[in-house]
């Protein structure tokens, strides 16, 4: 099981520690470093900055939001950075949810997410393989554009720049069972939002047709500390926000996932509290058991035991979310 460093997205402003952390992870033998985006900092610019100040570590997007860019634009970003970094890019993509797609990007959330994802990946792959001009008679991503409001003058094109790698790895952030199953057919890997080594059966059917070499790369907060309950507080804060605030009361993919993992009543309660403006109560309502299952928190010996459970399942890459150098070093030693 390889280790990756997950840096996430910026909050109020850029973190001065992201580049030093990436350099430390590279020194410790971590395989990859990953950035993210929501409705603030973008995913590619920080990764390019990190690429310029590292030499070996792979560079992943976890995730680049599909609504933010057309598939050809995303492919351009990936092939450009892949050249500049010497072939280190891993392209993680995700749809996000209706609240962000329509509220931030000002675009309709696709009525058929599976089809939209499939078409998006198809176009990206066509660009990267550069075998012919990009053409797709799609429902969401037609190339050339054939809509009634177009001129009809669009021409099928292939990239001027020759991509460095035709088979640059593409991973998808998928949550629903059908979406995960499709991911095993059209992508090189999967970026689970929450992974519990105690509940691998939740994903067993969806991953049943995964090919040899398919990547499973969940993100997990980690913290070496004596007080487990205190160490879990940042995990619970993150869950309170995602379960309660990242979506509509009637359509929240993160809350639905928590429910499928055996915590349905708790997920709905967190939503209820968060949407009522009682955010601190929403965080406290997150069960310690759930937060603990999807993270690596506690003394070194406890983390070592938990790490063995992560290794026994299908996880190929563990993306560690931790700004703490002691924790990063401990995981590198234990792995």
TrEMBL record:
NCBIfam families: F420_Rv3520c. InterPro entries: F420-G6PD/mer, F420_OxRdatse_Rv3520c_pred, Luciferase-like_dom, Luciferase-like_sf. It comes from the Bacteria. This is F420-dependent oxidoreductase-like protein. Residues 16-315 form the Luciferase-like domain. Keywords: Oxidoreductase. It holds the Pfam family Bac_luciferase. SUPFAM superfamilies: Bacterial luciferase-like (SSF51679). PANTHER family: 5,10-METHYLENETETRAHYDROMETHANOPTERIN REDUCTASE, PTHR43244. It comes from Streptomyces umbrinus.
């Amino acid at each position: 099981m390889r280790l990756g460093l997950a840096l996430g997205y910026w909050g109020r402003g850029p973190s001065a520690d992201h580049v030093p952390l990436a350099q430390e992870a590279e020194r410790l033998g971590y395989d990859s470093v990953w950035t993210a985006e929501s409705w603030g900092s973008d995913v590619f610019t920080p990764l390019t900055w990190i690429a310029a100040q590292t030499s070996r570590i792979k560079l992943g997007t976890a995730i680049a939001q599909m609504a933010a860019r057309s598939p050809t634009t995303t492919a351009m970003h990936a092939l450009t950075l892949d050249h500049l970094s010497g072939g280190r890019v891993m392209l993680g993509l995700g749809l996000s949810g209706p609240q962000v797609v329509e509220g931030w990007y000002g675009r309709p959330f696709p009525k058929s997410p599976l089809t939209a994802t499939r078409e998006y990946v198809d176009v990206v792959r066509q660009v990267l393989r550069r075998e012919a001009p990009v053409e797709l008679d799609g429902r969401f991503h037609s190339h050339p554009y054939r809509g009634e409001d177009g001129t009809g003058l669009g021409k099928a094109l292939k990239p001027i720049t020759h991509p460095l790698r035709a088979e640059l790895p593409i991973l998808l952030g998928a949550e629903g069972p059908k979406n995960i199953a499709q991911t095993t057919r059209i992508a090189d890997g999967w970026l689970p939002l929450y992974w519990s080594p105690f509940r691998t059966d939740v994903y067993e059917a969806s991953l049943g047709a995964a090919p040899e070499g398919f990547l499973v790369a969940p993100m997990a907060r980690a913290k070496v500390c004596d007080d487990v309950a205190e160490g879990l507080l940042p995990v619970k804060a993150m869950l309170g926000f995602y379960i309660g605030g990242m979506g509509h009361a009637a359509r929240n993919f993160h809350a639905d996932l928590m429910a499928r993992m055996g915590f349905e009543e708790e997920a709905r309660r967190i939503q209820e509290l968060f949407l009522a403006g009682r955010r601190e109560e929403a965080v406290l309502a997150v069960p310690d058991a759930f937060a603990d299952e999807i993270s690596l928190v506690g003394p070194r010996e406890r983390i070592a035991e938990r790490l063995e459970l992560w290794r026994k399942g299908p996880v190929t890459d563990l993306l560690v979310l931790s700004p703490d150098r002691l924790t990063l070093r401990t995981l590198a030693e234990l792995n």
